[in-house]
Amino acid sequence: MIQVEKLGKVYQLGRHELAALKDVSFEIERGEYVAIMGPSGSGKSTLMNLLGCLDLPTTGKYRLESIDVQTLDQNQLAEVRNKRIGFVFQNFNLLPRATALENIELPLLYGRVPNPQKIALQALEKVGLADRAKHRPNELSGGERQRAAIARALVNQPAIILADEPTGNLDSKTGEEIMDVFGRLNRDGTTLIVVTHDPIIAGHSRRILKMQDGRLVGENAPC
Fold first, then answer.
1. pLDDT reading at 223 higher than 60
2. By the 8 A CB rule, do 104 and 155 touch?
3. pTM of the prediction?
4. Looking at the domain 2-220, which fold is it?
5. What's 139's DSSP letter?
6. Beta pairing, strands 59-64 & 33-37
């Protein structure tokens, strides 16, 4: 599903260059559950941005479902992000004035998908939040807001879900509940990539890619 070959990313900072990624190579098969782990500054967030088509690499190749991402224009990249990739962020990124249901409908409206409310309700049911559909984010707990964000990521039936520190703003008990949701989704066939610095969160995955100073320095199964 994902093929990354000698991926590099260089940022121009005035007269200086910062190599955020250096010769990173790996593959991820359909249905895998992978954690990308590393300390702050290791390059894991830069890698997530590239995998999510939010940015393009400076060097190397990235293929998503056999699509050479570097050959796509901005409109095509936007379509890939909307239809093939589901995003879950640490800060939820929910619209405060919209209900949970309306937040989840939004990607469907962008894609002009028929019956958006029905599909959005089904996504809420998958994460156990159907009874909170009419509530706005400020009426939901942190865990419920993250469940809504996961439902929004699922709603277009993406090829992969990318989660960036998905439990970073949650207490440990609620964080475990969210990771249980991810586990169920993966058992149902969803491909998951979780970016984290936390070994406990990475331990829920089936495979860990370890980043350090912009390089992939190790790969192993959780203990």
1. no
2. yes
3. 0.88
4. Rossmann fold (3.40.50)
5. G
6. unpaired
Distance between CA atoms of 48 and 196, rounded to whole angstroms?
Answer: 11
Q: For residues 27 and 160, give the distance between their C-alpha atoms in angstroms, rounded to a whole number.
A: 13
Please state, in angstroms and rounded to a whole number, the distance separating the CA atoms of residues 144 and 146.
Answer: 5
At 34-48, the pLDDT tens digits run 999 998 889 998 999
Q: Six-digit token pair at 72?
A: 């796509």
pLDDT at 107: 85
Which residue, among 94, 97, 166, has the nearest Cα to 124 in the 3D structure?
94
Nearest to 33 by CA among 221, 166, 223: 221
**Is 159 strand, coil or helix?**
coil
Residues contacting residue 61 through CB under 8 Å, at least 6 positions apart = 3, 4, 5, 6, 7, 68, 70
Q: How far apart are CA 189 and CA 13, in angstroms?
A: 41
Q: Is the pLDDT of residue 132 over 70?
A: yes
Q: Could you tell me where the DSSP H helices lie in the chain? A: 44-51, 74-83, 100-110, 116-126, 142-154, 172-187, 199-202
Domain ranges of the chain: 2-220
Which residue is listed with tokens 């509940």? 177
3-state helix, strand, coil in the chain (%, to 5): 35, 30, 35
